[in-house]
Amino acid sequence: MKTPRLLDLVKPEVLSLTAYRAEEPRPDLIKLDANESPFPLPEELRRELRHALDQVAVHRYPDPKEDRLRSVLAAQLQVAPGALVLGNGSDELIQLLLLATSGPGTTILAPVPTFSMYELIARAQGLRFEGVPLGSRFKLDLPRLIETIERRDPKVIFLATPNNPTGGVLSEAEICKILAVAPGLVVVDEAYGPYAGRTMLPHLVDQERLVILSSLSKIGLAGLRIGYLVAHPALTAELEKVRLPFNLNAFSQAAAAVLLNHQEWIDAGVREVVRERARVMNHLVALPGVEAFPSAANFILFRTTPPGNDVFEAVLGQGVLVRNLGSVPGLQNCLRVTVGTKAENDRFLDALTKALR
Ligand SMILES: *Cc1c(COP(=O)(O)O)cnc(C)c1O
Questions:
Q1: Residue 86 Cα, ligand 1 centroid: separation in angstroms?
Q2: Domain spans, the chain
Q3: How far does residue 50's CA lie from ligand 1's centre (Å)?
Q4: 216 CA distance to ligand 1 centroid (A)?
Q5: 20 to 30 A from 114, CA-CA: which of 47, 120, 223, 325?
Q6: 115 in ligand 1 pocket by Cβ < 6 Å?
Q7: Strand, helix or coil at 186?
Q8: What's the alpha-carbon Rg for the chain, to the nearest Å?
């Protein structure tokens, strides 16, 4: 068979990629691998949700401008509705932003290790990706980053804060210094912002090259696939031109508009995870054979003295799924655990303790 010739039709940039790895649902396992919220919707909200979904006109296209959801989000963020672009997950907005701004020969830059989609999407679009290694204990090496920015002239810089998978945050001062030297857009990805209690949103008024990216995925609504971007309205107007029509389906729009009006439920989930994060961290730092890195997100990255693959398998064998990051450059023997409910965290800590014996 002539498979090789078929694959000649695929761009070399794509042939050289490795697909993003996401685990299939495993209801038999305690799932602490994907930085989801561990809290299902309470019954009162499910009832309200059922009612809202019941009104959806499935035979019609969804609202192309997402007016209802857009106004709920804009009011909460205290930004103009026109400053927002909504995406089918923030992954789609990363793709959209690069599609609209960056062509052949342009460089996309990010401190690494970081969220793998920046590099994957950049390379799939034929762009160059420059990863600038984080410093000791995954702290930002600002002089090195600034030096690389000046040398490589990146069109877009991605700064995830808190960073996935390391959990570290950038200070406002660091981000402002980066904005001062960056020749292009600086995208601050705040997917985990609520767990850190910080946002760069107030800086949008005087930084026109600042783009804030965020998502509902990590705060309890991962199934909806909704991300959003906040930027200067002149930029969002251009992004809107390349956004695919109806990228947000009618069910997700309706559900998010209802659930975002229950900010108290989202906030309570975040607070509980933050409390549990401190408790899990205290246990991890006391465990011999574990080096845990400080985290402001809903997960903790840790390195094990025994081979990380063995620890991962031993924890999995006890019914707990974490993320094995050992194959990522710079993350040898590193695992990432999402903070779950108290009971889930206890199961994880117990499994890890046994795995290390
Ligand atoms: C999970 C994650 C996202 C993706 O969010 P979606 O809205 O689910 O596409 C974006 N950025 C970072 C840093 C993430 O960890």
A1: 14
A2: 6-42+264-356, 55-262
A3: 26
A4: 9
A5: 223
A6: yes
A7: strand
A8: 21
State the closest ligand 1 atom to the C-alpha of 226, by its place in the atom list counted from 1.
7
Interval 66-122: pLDDT, tens: 999 999 999 999 999 999 999 999 999 999 999 999 999 999 999 999 999 999 999
Q: What percent of the chain has pLDDT over 70?
A: 99
Q: How far apart are CA 5 and CA 191, in angstroms?
A: 41
Q: Place 27 in a pLDDT band, splitting at 50, 70 and 90.
A: confident
CB within 8 Å of 173: residues ≥ 6 apart: none
Give CATH for domain 55-262: 3.40.640.10
Q: Using a 6 Å cutoff on CB, does residue 191 contact ligand 1?
A: yes
Read off the pLDDT of residues 177-198 as tens digits, 9 standing for 90 and up. 999 999 999 999 999 999 999 9
Q: Which atom of ligand 1 is least distant from the CA of 35?
A: 1
Tell me if 128 sits within 8 A of 140, measured CB to CB: no
Query: With a 6 A CB cut-off, is 166 part of the ligand 1 pocket?
Result: no
Task: Choose the residue to mutate in 218, 224, 225, 298 for probing ligand 1, maximizing ligand atoms within 8 Å of C-beta.
Answer: 218
Tens digit of pLDDT for each residue in 215-235? 999 999 999 999 999 999 999
What is 6-42+264-356's CATH superfamily? Aspartate Aminotransferase, domain 1 (3.90.1150.10)
Collect all residues with Cβ–Cβ distance below 8 Å to 145 and sequence separation of at least 6: 111, 132, 178
269/40 Cα distance (integer angstroms): 10
pTM above 0.85, yes or no: yes
Q: Which two tokens stand for residue 84?
A: 């927002």
287-298 tens-digit pLDDT: 999 999 999 999
